[in-house]
Fold:
Amino acid sequence: MNDAMQSRRSLTLRARLLCGFFIFVSLLLIVRLYFLQIVHGAEYAREAMGQYQESAPESEVRGSIFFTTKDGTRVAAAVMRSGWRIAIDPERISDAASVYEKLSAITPIDRDIFMTDAAKKTDPYEEVAFHISDDVASKIKALGITGVMLVSDQWRFYPGATLAAQAIGFVGYQASGTSKTGAYGLEKFYDSTLAQTSSGLYVNPFAEIFTNLESALASDPSAHEGSVVTSIEPNVQRQLEVVLAQVMQEYTPEMAGGIVMDPKTGAIYAIGAYPSFDPNTYGSVTDPSVFDDPLVEGRYELGSIMKPLTMAAAIDSGAVAPQTTYNDTGCIERSTFKICNYDLRARGVIPMQQILNQSLNVGASFLADTMGHPVLTRYLRLFGFGEKTGIDLPGEVSGDLSPLGSGNGPDVNYDTAAFGQGISESPIEMVRALSALANGGVLPTPHVATAIEYESGITRSLTMPQGVQVLKPSTAATVTNMLITVFDTGLLNGKLKMDHHSIAAKTGTAQIPKRGGGYIEGDVYLHSFFGYFPARDPRFIVFLFAIKPHGQKYASATLAQPFAQVAKFLINYYNIPPDR
Structure:
């Protein structure tokens, strides 16, 4: 009896082991078939063209970069495009002119380059054309020309052309000139994620399973090869660039740039600057400075958009309240320097609201002196000035608060810092700080990428650092209400006020420092503008700036209307319900 039971148990165990083995093998086959037919199907199909081709001496294999539309659809921003190169063996070509005529009848080829290369009889391999489509390659193959080869190729392609060019970047050769790598933007920042070490065509299926499992469970999703999914919304990006192009055309500044961000999460919907470039043809650019992203890599004195933060610091520290008044004399003297309102005019005894409504420098100085210089310095550091935001774009710089020291420098340094002069910051640094006003006093972490998609099809979201509380929520709400009043009544005498949507906003007009000290004389300014909406529960914060615009002295004249244009687009595009 016992022997029979043991025999049945042994038989059951063997059956289970056998079933488990077959299930495991089936899983391996399914995974392998998935990669053969779905993931690498196109690559195998291209290999099957065979016969009349050579292997590329150097071929890129790289993950994609995606924009994300408002409904979650992914739109290609950077992809690998497959095609062919045309190469020749000069020694096997007897009539170069005839061969050129046959090839050029199918696809454009530079005649001078072709004839020069065809004359190199001791060189068995010369490439004469690139980025050839499958259709063109098939026609060339059908000619059967001796000495002409088709070389399988892949290259980086940017479907949006100039769209978000500085943020996306491009792939270019390293200084050594032997291999390509991400040179700017996301291509550079996430190069180790995007660059793939192998084509994956002949991966061991066991290794394939464990590699995918490791990437799915990794604490840092970007540590594994894959594609980068961004929060950049292509239609929002396009609208921002249209507006910036209009500013460039109308006021001819040296540069104009802008950012559209969610002030609560730090997700960037649009970021760009003019002049710009097309990453598909980056080699034709004569001024490589356009490759840099001034919104992340530039440091500027951004002027009076600092005043709401100074007001917030003074209110949060208890130094003033909205109903506090002061005597505005039009000009004051600090450390032998004169500080004046933009029009040199005194306002007399006025409340705090007028400091923002009329953008009064003397009022900002009053706030700095009343709260105390060490307190102002502490809050500016709390707002993140003087440090990098951690945005996932390369080359980020931090602002310069060195003129403030630890709070015991010359009085004039603090009074000017209070209205955004004498200290500098990057635009993304300023946007993060201003987002605290829109986000209940919490600093978000600006970011462009939101997820990594692996070759297996698994997508892992990127986790951002938790926001830092730098102001009381009540302070943020108070300053927001003050900025709503600025937009509704102070800005262009209320011309841009929206009846059904509240907007909190402020302009900035700053002198531009010159090397060696002092400021550029004459009507030469940096204009800036920011606003967030719906003001009491914001979906967006928008920042615009222009360097040395012509024809207008103040930012209210150059950037207020462009801001309103972006705001109206966002309200309509996202169907934001009225909040008043």
